[in-house]
Amino acid sequence: MVLDVVRTGRISAGSVLLGLAVALSACIPVTELRTGVRAGADLVARLIFLPARGWSAAVILLDAAIVARAWFSAGRPRRDRGAR
């Protein structure tokens, strides 16, 4: 958000939505899901507010892969790492 204010002189709706998603994802205790929520929010923000050219297209693909991984991890039973 700081770079958005420095660059444009105001806060855009995309920055607010992304910041809100990151803040809300901090409440999720599972790391994979937290990362998936952040990547999903970034993916939606990029698809809505940015043209998919150059690095933005590469980051869109990366975000989609992270969301897919989080979705896959959420459906699998977690292994208890402490009990051996």
Structure, explained:
The chain is mainly α. Helix content is 71%, strand content 0%. The termini are far apart.
Question: Would you kindly provide a brief summary of this structure?
Answer:
By secondary structure, the chain is mostly helical.
Give the SSE map:
Blueprint: H1 2-8, H2 13-25, H3 31-49, H4 55-75
Helix pairs in contact: 2-3, 3-4
- Quick check: average pLDDT? 76
β-sheet strand percentage: under 5%
Low-confidence runs: none
CA-atom Rg in angstroms:
15 Å
Helix count? Answer: 4
The SSE order reads HHHH
SSE-based structural type: mainly alpha
For the biggest sheet, the summary is: none
What coarse outline follows from CA principal-axis ratios?
flat
The proportion of residues forming helix, as a percent range, comes to over 70%
DSSP strand count: 0
Please give the alpha-carbon distance between the first and last residues: 44 Å
Which short descriptors sum up this protein?
mainly alpha, 84 residues
